[in-house]
Amino acid sequence: MDDIRGDVEAIGRMAEVPTILEVICKTTGMGFAAVARVTDSRWLACAVLDNVDFGLKAGGELKVESTISHEIRQSHHLVVIDDVDEIPEYRDHHTPAIYGLKSYISVPIIRRDASFFGTLCAIDPAPHKVDNPETIGMFQLFAKLIASNLDSNSDLVQAQVDLAEERELSVVREQFVAVLGHDLRNPIASVMAGIRRLGRTAEMSSESRDILGLMQSSALRMRDLVDNVLDFARARLGDGLKLDVVAQASLRPVLDNVVEEIRSVHPDLDIRTSFELDRGVRCDHPRMSQLLSNLIDNAVTHGDRTKPIEIGATTTGGRLELWVANSGKPISEKVKPTLFRPFFRGEVISSQQGLGLGLYIASEIARVHGGRLSVNSDETETRFTLTMPL
User: Kind and range of the H or E element at 229?
Assistant: First the structure.
């Protein structure tokens, strides 16, 4: 469909236009009113009210050279005629002769970008008093209303196109991230295996062991980042995170392993635990390990490193509660509503690095287990708590 036909259909979708044409005819007494799309080569009727059997319907076309609208398109000036026989300029004009009109009024419809769309016009085979401020003002107001609606329609169409393109680009980006994350897992695993092997070497200076510790910390962080990216891609591109549930197995060894791994990477931190798990928990152990690791990593990144990190878990009242608490600057109320959104990093300083996926993935793991992740934060502590049914 060409653009001009699209413009015709845009006018046809405007619910106000039939009322505008009816008001024009009743107010002026003229028998024919129309909204026309006019270009340098075409004149198309977008909407028509014909009470004088002029013979033109919506979608109909006139030779543009035969119309006065052709001249209006060039000048952008309205034309108002009470009686062509009384105006020398139009007495012998070809348009009145062709179409048998005596009275005529046509006002240009000008878009927001100053482009000429067409005209709002009315004609009649009998003379009518239309050359007055009231009638002209009415036509101009209606023409501006039509132009405004056209601009709004164009904005909506463009917004829909932009949204579709952004969605397509977003999918491509997420697919790229998923592929990249998958391809990074193997080399990271190789690096970690090499670090562990070197760590078992007896003859090594203290400086070498310190460097090896830094390498281990970086490798673990890269692994966690890649895991979060892959889970984000699964959640957005697939059917969500998948669970491999173990029924009623002890969760404590899983939590202890996570804590010990964090302690080995951050030996300077005071990490305290209180696990009161008197029964097994039906859950996906690797996912629970990932959730706790993300929460501890968040506490390490944003908490006061001179104060202890408290980690606790209980199985009481038919539910599991797992929490991580740290001291430090409280989370503002403004930030809390967006805290569990992907790629949200909150109020961080330049030395704090991350993708902003840790809390999002943790909240998704809680959700697919039928639980929820919540946060309470004040000047005393910031506490993230997982609550889920047993």
Answer: helix 206-237
